[in-house]
Design goal:
35% of the residues lie in helices and 34% in strands. It is an alpha/beta fold. It folds into 2 domains: 4-70, Translation initiation factor 3 (IF-3), N-terminal domain (Ubiquitin-like (UB roll), Roll); 76-160, Translation Initiation Factor IF3.
């Protein structure tokens, strides 16, 4: 992103800090106007003809861009909720509230059921539990991947419908 004297076009389209179009003017005049207001002239649309630049505080703008990018990097789009076939009713409700919260934020949720020891002989109970999960969130999500057995694990993928 080019700023102030780094912009080397002859004429540019200038937008002020309030979003109003000031029209096409020479770059030197636009830089002087921005400096007179105590702000910077920042290139916002390099592909357009003439080049579009905005008068803003570049320090604040750059800080907000970095903050937005950091927030997006840290937020995972795939969440996982783990269950066992011996889950109690209250624990099931608590986990379902978290699943609903993840889905309402637009995240994809992988529901996983672990089978410990000889519980693997009760795969049908695990499939019933996954069907119950899918039924409880059917108003805000749909099943993207049907339940699949992977060793001692049974998994299903839920995606939000409103996004």
């Amino acid at each position: 992103m080019r700023v102030n004297e780094g912009i080397n076009e002859k004429e540019i389209l200038v937008i002020d800090e309030k979003g109003e179009n000031l029209g096409v003017m020479p770059t030197a005049e636009a830089v002087a106007l921005a400096k007179g207001r105590g702000l910077d002239l920042v290139e916002v649309a390099s592909q357009s003809q003439p080049l579009v630049c905005k008068i803003i505080d570049y320090g604040k703008y750059h800080y907000r861009q970095e903050k937005r990018e950091r927030k997006q990097r840290h937020r995972s789009r795939l969440k996982e909720m783990k269950f066992t076939i011996k889950i109690g009713e209250h624990d099931f409700d608590t986990k379902m509230n978290r699943v609903r919260e993840f889905l309402s934020h637009g995240d994809t949720v992988r529901v996983t059921i672990f089978f410990r020891g000889r519980e693997i002989v009760h795969v049908t109970r695990g499939r019933d539990l996954l069907a119950r999960v899918a039924q409880q969130v059917s108003d805000i999500a749909r099943v993207d991947e049907e339940p699949k057995a992977k060793g001692k694990v049974l998994q299903m993928l839920l995606v939000p419908t409103q996004s």
